[in-house]
Structures are given as structure tokens and as C-alpha cells.
UniProtKB/TrEMBL annotation:
Signal peptide: none annotated. It holds the Pfam family AMP-binding. Residues 27-84 form the Acetyl-coenzyme A synthetase N-terminal domain. GO terms for molecular function: acetate-CoA ligase activity. Its cofactor is Mg(2+). The modification N6-acetyllysine is found at K613. Belongs to the ATP-dependent AMP-binding enzyme family. CoA binds at R195, G196, G197, K198, T313, S527, R588. It catalyses: acetate + ATP + CoA = acetyl-CoA + AMP + diphosphate. This is Acetyl-coenzyme A synthetase. It is an enzyme of class 6 (ligase). Residues 86-473 form the AMP-dependent synthetase/ligase domain.
Length: 653
């Protein structure tokens, strides 16, 4: 632990500090004020956005078990789309709102002004209305990273519909489950999704998914690549054609602060994905504030978050935060390594990006390609770099700092979650010196506490470790799980009563800096994507030849964690390479390519207690190649299975 306190600290340059929103001397006092009187603090911050009817109430929240209730600015009314578009029309109508950078660099980028954003969003809103979508209805969005994804989100917000984006890498089954769970009226998709020079047949996936959904679900299709797709008359609608024919303006509706804005499904420790619900007022205040403060965003800056809108990072930091602040936000359809490993840096140079926000897994894979790639491009516009999704290892941090930021750009390592709407723990650039690998200190209004996992006692010492909880609410916090408030309480407020439980472990060093050590539940983090081990297990056991399966994470150089699956076959089935490939393909179809196991080990038996509980601790250790630390195996029903698993541990990766 003392290593952490002693780790080198990187302070921002004087030049950066001179322009920073928060000065070094200001953080401590502002933070103290934010937690001492949250009502006063957030009443002021609430004015960052435009309200139709101003709020008089600010914070009404309770983490009390059995009565968890989270409301912010409850009597205020607003429209999120109007905040992201209309309110900028007087000053920024001709400013670029979105720079769209296509997958293929030979296709020209699009610069969409705020005036065009208003028109396109309005047209799409009118198409949705014509399909009978109104306030409170759910719309599932399954799109590539194209401008229509932004229009669709903002069109829903404009008419009060609730969007639920499903990442285009998810399978038809995963899509169908989300359409059904949210009882969506409309699905918005595209013909194909080009990525890295390859095309995913999105419409074909949508067709398969819709077979398992209510017949009344309409399918709005963006003809993006123009390739032929199957067409179901009466159900499928050519969205671009309808938009062209629709009225160019749509009035926005007055929504309550606590009306849901979106549902976003994420993995939990049980098999069924959780529909995280975010509402309108508090979420927007928090997304806008963190986008401005954490990235030290200033008027006129070009901001690029490389995430996909299918994840919360894309919601908060491609769309809602930047657009609420009147920014120019980059939306990138491609991947970091297409057509070559210089693509990110080429795009930074081309669009003169000022803040660049990506994931450690991308940095690690680009680091492996060598520093000559960033060196080829003019990166002098960059002022700040960001990281999100998993802890960033110091080696990657140093490479990012040296070869991309050229030692001049603060790096914000932002810790947060789908559930939190925006950053929880992050350096405030200019004010908080960074230590590579640490998310540093809490954002304004966030009260992290560290608990002993066994006794649930609050660890008061500055230098400590344990599980990470948050003591009180903030405006960006999720409000419930769609249709299942009981599960919401159970998942986040029951294990450590009175606190929001993040599911992460952490250390706090002598400087009070937080170092996130990873999930303490059965959730793994693969390339910054969250995956429930139970989800992969249930996909595997759904295969007719699989009797049983246990899935754990193991350290992976590029992905952070890889997926390690132990598989027990049905009696009479023989392991083979062909079957291994078949199971990999099976999981891809059941969930999506991101869930494909990296390693599959054939397990004649799994280590179980006498009561039949699988001892995952042991499986994790074997997957980690850490046989010395297996701990007590005496309670196992059959200790010999462990020897077999060790002897046959997969050695790739
Ligand atoms: C989990 C949340 C929120 C955006 C992307 C992921 C891990 C996220 C960091 C970070 C260490 C991090 C945590 C967290 N995580 N950012 N900077 N340092 N760990 O969202 O899919 O909801 O996953 O990602 O384990 O709980 P998500």
C-alpha cells in the first residue's frame, strides 16, 4: 500500500491550470461544500440546464432498505432534447454539433450543425409519432454508430418516449430479450453495420429477433449501406424515406424531472440482464456537469469519446453531456485499427480533437503496435486524455501520457458505472495530481466509503482496503430496475444496508486516493465490457451437449480479463476441437461476439461443496494459474476433481 502513496504524482502544467475550471486550491473546499449541504450545492448546479418549470425541491432520497427511493428536482419540468438542441439555437445554430467519422476513411466525414440536428431529430420524432409512439412508450435502438443513432435518442427524448439501446454487437436472442422485457413498440435498426471494413447484418439479426416478439412491434430501418435485406411489408419501414417526407419541426413535450429518459441493460451477477433506468433532470445535470468539469471542456472545444452509444459511456459522453453543453462531439463508426493502427490519431489530427476519451484495452492494443503510429500524426490539438472501463495499468498510462499526450495532457482515469450515470471517482484536471493506475478522488457530491467485506464495518483509516460503497445519492444515479424495484434494492442496497454497493473492491492510500481493484461479484470485465459469468454459463448449458459449466475471468494482456469456461459434457459426448469451435459459435449466437469464451477447458467434474455449490474461488485460481493459493479444498465433495483441472489447465492466453 505504501507503494501507492509513494507512486509518482503528475500535476498539470501551469498553462493548463491557468485555464482550468477548478484550480488546485479550490477542489477541497468545493468538495466539502458539496457533501456538507447537498441541497444547496445541487440547487445551484441544477441551473446548468433549462427548466420549463423550475424545481423548488432538490434532493429527496433514501437508501433505507425496503424503502429505497431516489428523486431529484422532482417538481421541475424540462425536455432533454430541447436542452441538447433548441436552447443552443440562438448562439450556435451554425456550429457543428456532431462530427460523424465513418468506418471507411475514404468516405467523407459529416459535420452536422445544431440547426441540422434540430431538423433531423424533429423529422425522426415525427416519424415515431406517426407510428403511434408517445410519452412513456419504449423504443429499442439497434444501430451502428451513425448520426441516426443520435437523432433517434434525441427524438425519443423530444416526444417523451423511453429509449433502450442495444449494442449492435449483441445477438438476435439478446435483442429479443430486451425488446420483450421493455415491451417496446418500435425497433430502430439499419440494414448493415460496417466496422473495421466488415459488415454485420443488423437487419437480418433484427428479423430473427422479431420472430420472438409481439407481432405489433414495428421495425424502422435506416438504409445505411444500401445493401439488399429481407423486407416484411406492413412491419418494416424505410426510415430515411419517411424522415424525408415528414415535417421538419416537431415541438418538444414537457416532461417531469423524474420521468424516465432511457433504459440500458447491463450484466449483473445473475443470468438475466438488468434494465437500468435513468430519468431526465438529475441525469442531464450530472452528465453535463461531469462532461464539463472532468474533461475541463470549454466552449469551442472538439470532444471525442470513442465509446459506442450502446454503452452508458456513449449516452453520457457522446450525446447527452456534450450536447447539453453545446459542444462539438465526434461520433466514430469504426475501430482503432482500421485501416491501420493510426486511425485514432489520424482522426484526432483531422478534426483537431481537444479532449480524447477511450478505454485501457484500446490503449494496450495500440501500444503493442508501437509508438510510430501516434508519431505519424499531428496531435498538438489535444489538451486532455481520458480513460474508462477498467483500471488502467501504469505501463499503458505511461505510454498514453508519453506518446499521445506528449507529457502535456492530464489523464483522467474515470471510475463509474452504467448505474451511476456519470463519473464517481476521477481526477479533476488541473486540481488533482494524478497517479498512474488510480482514479484518485471523488467527484463533487460523491461520498465513497470502504467497508470490510466480512464484517460490513466502515473502514475509517485513510489507508485501507475493502469493498467500495457510496454513502449518499447524487443526481445521476439510476432510479430503479425496469419493472423490478425489488431486484434493484436487492442488488445494490441489501448487502451493505444504508449504502449503494458498487460491486467493486478498492484500496485507499495514505493520500486518500482510490485504487479500484475490480469486481468482487460474479461480473467480469472483458475489454471494458461488462459480462455476467452466469449469462455465459446459461448460454453454454443451453447447448444440448453441455451438462454443466462454470465461467470465471482470468488476466488477459489486452482485454484486461478473458473469459475462461469450464465445461462438463453430457454422458457419452466426447471433447473435440470441433466441439470447442461449436460451443464458441454457440455463445456468439446466444449473446454476441463479446461473450465468446477465450478458453474452454473440458472438465470431467467441477469442484463442489457437499451441498453442491460450485467453488468458484478455486476455479478462478486455476484459471489464473495460481495453484499455490487454492486454499482449503477439504470441504469439497470430491477433492480429486481439482487435480484433474490443474493437470489440464489451458495454457494459451
Ligand atoms: C464497471 C462498470 C462506466 C463506463 C464503462 C463501464 C469497471 C469502470 C473504471 C475505472 C477501474 C473501472 C468497474 C465498474 N470500471 N471504470 N476507471 N477504473 N474500474 O461501465 O459496464 O457499467 O461497468 O467497470 O468494475 O464497476 P459498466
Amino acid at each position: 500500500m505504501s507503494d501507492h502513496a509513494a507512486a509518482q504524482k503528475y500535476a498539470a502544467s501551469e498553462e493548463f491550470v491557468a485555464h482550468a475550471h477548478v484550480k488546485p486550491a479550490e477542489y477541497a473546499a468545493q468538495y466539502a461544500a458539496s457533501v456538507a449541504d447537498p441541497n444547496a450545492f445541487w440547487a445551484k448546479e441544477g441551473q446548468r440546464i433549462d427548466w420549463i418549470k423550475d424545481f423548488t425541491r432538490v434532493k429527496e432520497t433514501s437508501f433505507e432498505r425496503g424503502a429505497v427511493s431516489i428523486k431529484w428536482f422532482e417538481d421541475g419540468t424540462l425536455n432533454v432534447s430541447a436542452n441538447c438542441i433548441d436552447r443552443h439555437m440562438t448562439r450556435r445554430a451554425n456550429q457543428t454539433a456532431i462530427i460523424w467519422e465513418p468506418d471507411d476513411p475514404k468516405t467523407p466525414a459529416q459535420h452536422i450543425t445544431y440547426a441540422q440536428l434540430l431538423e433531423n431529430t424533429s423529422r425522426m420524432a415525427n416519424v415515431l409519432k406517426a407510428q403511434g409512439v408517445s410519452r412513456g412508450d419504449r423504443v429499442v435502438i439497434y444501430l451502428p454508430m451513425i448520426p441516426e443513432a443520435a437523432y433517434a435518442m434525441l427524438a425519443c427524448a423530444r416526444i417523451g418516449a423511453i429509449h433502450s439501446i442495444v449494442f449492435a454487437g449483441f445477438s438476435p436472442d439478446a435483442l429479443a430479450n430486451r425488446i420483450n422485457d421493455s415491451e417496446a413498440k418500435v425497433l430502430i435498426t439499419a440494414d448493415f453495420a460496417p466496422r473495421g471494413g466488415k459488415k454485420t447484418a443488423l437487419k437480418n439479426n433484427a428479423d430473427q429477433a422479431l420472430r420472438h416478439c409481439d407481432d405489433r412491434v414495428k421495425c424502422l430501418v435506416v438504409k445505411h449501406t444500401g445493401d439488399q435485406t429481407h423486407w416484411t411489408e406492413g412491419r418494416d419501414i424505410d426510415l430515411k424515406a419517411e424522415m424525408a417526407a415528414a415535417k421538419p419541426y416537431c415541438a418538444y413535450v414537457e416532461m417531469g424531472a423524474e420521468d424516465p429518459l432511457f433504459i440500458l441493460y447491463t450484466s449483473g451477477s445473475t443470468g438475466k440482464p438488468k434494465g437500468v433506468v435513468h430519468t431526465s433532470g438529475g441525469y442531464l445535470v450530472y452528465a453535463a456537469m461531469t462532461q464539463q468539469i472532468t474533461f475541463d471542456y470549454h466552449d469551442g472545444d472538439v470532444f471525442w469519446c470513442t465509446a459506442d452509444v450502446g454503452w452508458v459511456t456513449g449516452h453520457s459522453y457522446i450525446i447527452y453531456g456534450p450536447l447539453a453543453n453545446g459542444a462539438t462531439t465526434v461520433m466514430f463508426e469504426g475501430v482503432p485499427t482500421f485501416p491501420d493502427a493510426g486511425r485514432f490519431w489520424e482522426v484526432c489530427a483531422k478534426h483537431k480533437v481537444n479532449q480524447f476519451y477511450t478505454a485501457p484495452t484500446a490503449i494496450r492494443s495500440l501500444m503493442g503496435m508501437g509508438p510510430e503510429w501516434p508519431a505519424k500524426h499531428d496531435l498538438s490539438s489535444l489538451k486532455l486524455l481520458g480513460s474508462v472501463g477498467e483500471p488502467i495499468n501504469p505501463e499503458a498510462w505511461n505510454w498514453y501520457n508519453q506518446h499521445v499526450g506528449k507529457g502535456r495532457c492530464p489523464i483522467v482515469d474515470t471510475f463509474w458505472q452504467t448505474e451511476t450515470g456519470g463519473h464517481l471517482i476521477t481526477p479533476i484536471p488541473g486540481a488533482i495530481p494524478q497517479k498512474p493506475g488510480s482514479a484518485t478522488l471523488p467527484f463533487f457530491g460523491i461520498q465513497p466509503i470502504v467497508l470490510d467485506p466480512a464484517t460490513a464495518k466502515v473502514q475509517d483509516a485513510v489507508e485501507t482496503d475493502g469493498v467500495l460503497c457510496i454513502a449518499d445519492s447524487w443526481p445521476g444515479q439510476m432510479r430503479t430496475l425496469w419493472g423490478d424495484h425489488a431486484r434493484f434494492e436487492e442488488a445494490y442496497f441489501s448487502q451493505y444496508p444504508g449504502y449503494y454497493f458498487t460491486g467493486d473492491g478498492c484500496r485507499r492510500d495514505a493520500d486518500g486516493y482510490y485504487w479500484i481493484t475490480g469486481r468482487v461479484d460474479d461480473v467480469i470485465n472483458v475489454s471494458g465490457h461488462r459480462m455476467g459469468t452466469a449469462e455465459v454459463e446459461s448460454a453454454l448449458v443451453a447447448h444440448p451437449k453441455v451438462a454443466e459449466s462454470a465461467v470465471v475471468g482470468y488476466p488477459h494482456d489486452i482485454k484486461g480479463q478473458g473469459i475462461y469456461a469450464y465445461v462438463t459434457l453430457m454422458k457419452g459426448e466426447e471433447p473435440s476441437e470441433a466441439l470447442r469451435k461449436e460451443l464458441e459459435a454457440w455463445v456468439r449466437t446466444e449473446i454476441g461476439p463479446i461473450a465468446k469464451p477465450d478458453l474452454i477447458q473440458w472438465a470431467p467434474g467441477l469442484p463442489k461443496t457437499r451441498s453442491g455449490k460450485i467453488m468458484r474461488r478455486i476455479l478462478r485460481k486455476i484459471a489464473e494459474n495460481d495453484f499455490g493459493a487454492l486454499g482449503d479444498t477439504s470441504t469439497l465433495a470430491d477433492p480429486s476433481v481439482v487435480d484433474d483441472l490443474i493437470a489440464n489447465r489451458m495454457n494459451k492466453g
